[in-house]
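Structure tokens please, single chain.
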Amino acid sequence: VMSSVYIKDDSIQVMRPYTPINPDPYQDGHVDLLIKRYENGSVSRMLSKADLHDVIHVRGPMIEYDYQPNSRQEIGMIAGGTGITPMYQLIQHILHNPADKTKMWLIYGSQSEKDILLREELDKLAAENKDRLRVMYLVDRPSKDWEGQVGYVSEGMVKSFNNSDSISRLVFVCGPDKMLAHVCGEKARDFSQGKVSGVLGRLGLTSREVWKL
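Here you go.
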């Protein structure tokens, strides 16, 4: 199951969702969160200043997608920025289940190489599961030493990974609104999934094969 929790800033009555990144959150007694501090983000600022034993109000878990092991032969993931957290949660969940044989690929975009979150962890998982997990990084502002992909997610990048037929494939997308619009189209105004367009739409994927997080 892909899930998130909501954390509340009591001082201004604001709640924001965060995705646990440990393999089995809620079951092993703790929840690990990856939090990027934004200067205009009240909840992230509050959490960055929290001390040990401070009380934080958490609500959840909220189910984002009811994943079932082996329901698809292959799962694709396209993430931007902190949108990597639900993908990392799912990758760990699948790889920690010996009965789940699902294969995965991930395209992860960041502004620069230093902005790639969880890179060490992802590289380790990919190296240990070469037949199960493939990872591609791309950045907007490459350094002179950068050897990976540059720019926006393209049809060619997705084609290089997506080898399964339409019955067995599923692609998750999570990231900033502009990235979502480019890759698969924005969600509908009522926050339902909406029509698939963008890169994945041009490749012929439908709403049955794409899930916007």
